[in-house]
Design brief:
By secondary structure, the chain is of the alpha/beta class. The chain is built from 15 helices and 13 strands. Strand 6, helix 8 and strand 7 form a beta-alpha-beta unit.
């Protein structure tokens, strides 16, 4: 009986009839390529734990000894009494890893993005965002109160025309690896445009860190971008790093400004120190374990080749230096289906066959571009990729006939 919210049941009904209803699956195992779901073991192709570190023994043991040393709760925000030597050491290690003067930890990537953009901009300023940017970047831009422009995906010319008309401080914001497409921002061009137009550039490399670059430094490392080229660099720790949290890396001045002004930094409890200790252990694996990145690329290439042979619609790579496509393959390889209902049906068929692949629908992706977001882990084997391709082929053909 929802007399207090008379609209809600109608709204829920509408969401359901348009094939956009979201619900959760309850997992009974650690993260990994095998998940336990409803008593069954299924093969997981939708996690962002790209390097397979979320359940790594060294990371778990650092987490446990971190809890022994620091307890569980961090007690307060960083600026009160919650900033431990574990957080501090991790920040220094992340600064070194990214080749920046400093790094600042945030409790989540969502909060980092909201906090940074609104700390840097005001109503007299302007923010420019790729139209496929992650929701947290768009929300941060809106929350900042600055004039808000979305430019066509990866289209630096379109961006340039908007920029030349703007006044006040100008901030260009983009995903590095786009989270639902797996393609790359044209970073070399964006740096040029930003410099020419006297704008700041911010890159959210949530899906690049750990996965791309010889040492896992993400797109910044691939493109060789210094702190001057790319003054605001954001990374998350819950994906390739396999733990939790996020960071901003940049100049001393930038970090001090965020400590003074980023509301999502100031007004929230610090993440547990044990999580920082676990992340320090996973950073060591990220840097040392080249085999994880190399294997991921092999899997992604094998999948793309197989998917192309079967006639599936893959998302093309966008990159300024795409001569070396192999080097620039991300762990995200979506198959575009179009219709939301059908994407969900295919995903359900796959689950029956023992494969977990999530159907991504609007508003997460633009209307009419529902997709199966296939992601790989360094722990997958080639044969499992082949099994997935077979299962996809069966599921896609099955729903075709049913729909026709
Ligand atoms: C996941 C993600 C975030 C949010 O990070 P959380 O730590 O999960 O809050 C931000 N940006 C991008 C591009 C992401 O994919």
């Amino acid at each position: 009986m929802s007399y207090a919210f008379p609209d809600l049941s109608q709204q829920l009904q509408d969401i359901a009839t348009s094939g956009l209803y979201r619900s959760r699956r309850v997992i009974d195992s650690p993260q990994g390529i095998h998940l336990k779901l409803d008593g069954r073991s299924i093969l997981n192709f939708c996690s962002n734990d790209y390097l397979g570190l979320a359940n790594h023994p060294e990371v778990i043991s650092a987490f446990k000894s971190g809890a022994d040393q620091y307890g569980v709760g961090s007690g307060s925000a960083h600026l009160i009494c919650g900033h431990s030597s574990a957080h501090h050491a991790l920040e220094e290690e992340l600064a070194e890893f990214t080749g920046r003067e400093r790094a600042l930890l945030f409790s989540t990537g969502y909060m980092a993005n909201m906090g940074v953009i609104s700390a840097l901009l005001d109503i007299q300023d302007a923010v420019f965002e790729d139209r496929l940017n992650h929701a947290s970047l768009l929300d941060g831009g809106l929350m900042s109160g600055a004039r808000f422009k979305r430019y066509q995906h990866a289209d630096t010319q379109h961006l340039n025309t908007h920029l030349s008309k703007a006044s006040g401080n100008k901030l260009i914001v983009t995903d590095g690896v786009f989270s639902m497409d797996g393609d790359f921002a044209p970073l070399a061009d964006l740096v040029k445009v930003a410099k020419a137009q006297d704008a700041w550039l911010m890159v959210d490399d949530a899906h690049g860190f750990g996965v791309l670059g010889a040492k896992g430094g993400g797109l910044t490392e691939c493109f060789g971008l210094s702190q001057t080229d790319l003054p605001i660099l954001m990374g998350t720790l819950g994906k390739g790093f396999g733990t939790f949290g996020a960071f901003i890396a940049g100049s001393d001045e930038l970090i001090e400004t965020l400590i003074q002004k980023a509301r999502t930094y100031i007004f929230t409890t610090a993440l547990p120190a044990a999580v920082a200790e676990a992340t320090r252990a996973s950073l060591k694996r990220v840097i040392a374990d080249d085999w994880r990145r190399a294997h991921l690329k092999h899997l992604a290439l094998r999948f793309r080749t197989g998917a192309e042979q079967l006639g599936f619609e893959l998302v093309n790579l966008v990159s300024a230096n795409s001569d070396d496509k192999f080097d620039m393959l991300s762990a995200i390889q979506p198959i575009v289906i179009g219709d939301s209902q059908r994407a969900v049906e295919i995903s359900e068929h796959l689950l029956k066959a023992g494969f977990l692949v999530s159907a991504i629908r609007p508003p997460t992706v633009p209307k009419g571009s529902a997709r199966l977001r296939v992601t790989f882990s360094a722990l997958h084997q080639e044969t499992q990729v082949d099994q997935l391709l077979d299962a996809l082929n069966t599921a896609i053909n099955k729903t075709h006939t049913e729909a026709d």
